[in-house]
Amino acid sequence: RIRPDLQADEADRIATLPPESESDLDEVTVLWRETPDSLWTATRSGLWHEQDGKRERLPLPDNLPPRLNIYSIARDRAGDVWVAVRSRGVYQLHDGVWLRPAGVPEPTLANLLYRDNEGRMWLGLGTKGVAVLDQGRLRVFGEADGLQVGVALQMLQVGKDMLVSGENGLFRFDGAKFQPSA
């Protein structure tokens, strides 16, 4: 059901994403508005990108299950699209080929992806904390680093601080350590 407060053109676009189907394989798992004219849609059977009114279905990485669950979508500083796939790990679409990202051990299971203002990729690692990939080096943060968020559900950079929210509240990373946000 489409929310009544959406503008008519937005409601029409959302109602048709993905293309109508009777299959539960087309259940939407992620919507990501990259820019005002770029919308990504992941379903249990595919990945779509709509830009300037044109919709394109992208091929998926090989060896994925038929009922896949993409948790998150992001784009890195080089322009490559990343997806976090349930029980399979993180993939990067580079020049039309799906790869495992350099510096991210296989399989790193992530439920959330985010690129910060410095171009670093942040990964929510379920109950295992969060990680940041910076120039090919992966650094993992957990309870010992002050992060007691539970499962990270959202990330947002505000100024130089990274905010991570989850089951146990909101935490702020100041560049050295996470602190609960009051």
Q: Brief description of this entry?
A:
It contains 1 helix and 16 strands. With 182 residues, the protein is mainly beta. The strands form 4 sheets. Strands 1-2-3-4 form a 4-stranded antiparallel β-sheet, with no helix packed on it.
Folded structure, characterized:
The protein has 182 residues and is mainly beta. The chain contains one helix and 16 strands. The strands form four sheets. A four-stranded antiparallel beta sheet has the order 1-2-3-4, with no helix packed on it. It is globular, with a radius of gyration of 17 Å. The protein starts with 7 loop residues before the first helix and ends with a strand.
| Unreliable stretches covering 5 or more consecutive residues | none
* Total of helices: 1
Topology pattern, helix = H, strand = E:
HEEEEEEEEEEEEEEEE
**Which strand order does the major sheet show?**
1-2-3-4
Shape: globular
Number of strands: 16
State the major sheet.
Answer: 4 strands, antiparallel
Radius of gyration, in angstroms, nearest whole number:
17 Å
First-residue to last-residue Cα separation:
36 Å
- The assigned structural class equals mainly beta
Give the DSSP E fraction (strand runs of 2 or more residues): over 45%
Q: Return the average pLDDT rounded to an integer.
A: 87
State the helicity in percent bands. Answer: under 10%
